[in-house]
Fold this sequence. Notes:
alpha/beta, Purple Acid Phosphatase, chain A, domain 2, CATH 2.40.50.430, 2 domains, 9 helices, about 20% helix
Amino acid sequence: MTDNRSLIxxxxxxxxxxxxxxxxxxxxxxxxxxxxxxxPVFERMSLAYSPCxxxxxxGERSFSRQYAHIYAARLMQMRPLLTERAQQKxxxxxxxxxxxxxxxxxxxxIVGTLFxxxxxxxxxxxxxxxxxxxxxxxxxxxxxxESDELILEDELQRIKLExxxxxxxxxxxxxxxxxxxxxxxxxxxxxDFCTADLPLQxxxxxxxxxxxxxxxxxxxxxxxxxxxxxxxxxxxDMVTGQLGDQGEQSGAATISRVLLAGxxxxxxxxxxxxxxxxxxxxxxxxxxxxxxxxxxxxxxxxLVASVPVDVMPGQYDPTNYTIPxxxxxxxxxxxxxxxxxxxxxxxxxxxxIDGVRFLGTSGQNVCDxxxxxxxxxxxxxLEETLRLRHLAPTAPDTLGCYPxxxxxxxxxxxxxHVYFSGNAPTFESKLIKGANGQEVLxxxxxxxxxxQTVCLVNLxxxxxxxxxxxxxxxxxxxxxxxxxxx
Length: 486
């Protein structure tokens, strides 16, 4: 280099997949050049793949319907599940009432949809308050307060809840069963409550060898940080087997699929003022997302030539904003779309990979719940949505979604084996077990542009480990250091 700074490259091996290869007597990096000795060829494992996201595809696109239909459909679908769950918890003889049949002082169970009345919740009426010379509502990290109220609604009526229920943790749109009694003042005193909990799960096949699915999100192409591009290229080189010695390459061959969970483009590519600018000012300019998509296509080309790749859209990607987000259009990827290994998926995403069912989102549902509840951990929120048996309970109240009216597609009808959420601040994973023998691996996939970290899921053991790529340099030192750690 011109400034005589040295580049130190460290590969820290992990038990996860690097050490799967046999120990070698000497480093294969000291072998003859490829022109003289081609060396061993590692064949990548192929896995059976079956997409299961058809119910997230929107056929007709009619936005003339009211959102009351999706709440009605949600309650109608969830009521039998909650009734069964209530009888399991409080006995088969528990009295289950509708709100219109409540009698003061009678101990009973009621099933309904939660509504959380929040004074701090953003409102379009407050957003336009500047026109009336009023103070605009400030942006907040969380919108909960001591004045919040919990209300339970069914098809006909609503009632205010008080008692043994965590008001701050609950969110609007959750369908639950509560046990207690109505007081003289018309409020319902909660003694206990339950959720639908985990649905039934199909058996996971017994695999004979380790095989991995790599999960990444938040690539953030088009950002102003060059570090992320360096780490991104290291990631591609690692997956395609161009990084490390033969041991590393043998381990990379066990990565059988790559899943990119949204926010492929950076927030910097969003130009919200473009529509309000005069056309003569913008007709010779190019949107920042155009160059970012070109970079993404070139990146995908390197990957799909070597491994199957599933691509989910996210909050900053060029597709519809409301969930379920439809797959990115193939015309945006002229280079990589010619490969059958490129699968453009929806958000949410669901698929069977070698008999292991994956289900997850790009993270908008988790981030929205975080703002309107006391829960901070993305992993905790992920588990809560699984136990509620609903991917996005806050939709359509605070999270935009399509106005479905016959069926709510976000209700979980089958328990996944791997349940993930993208664009999290940190990597977290947890294996939870259900009452009927379900085993679910919860994974929060970190935002790659800020953490330089991806995750590897072992389909045989349902273990998950992070793989980190970091590039950093200190002004005081005369060397730049790069780490690839698993």
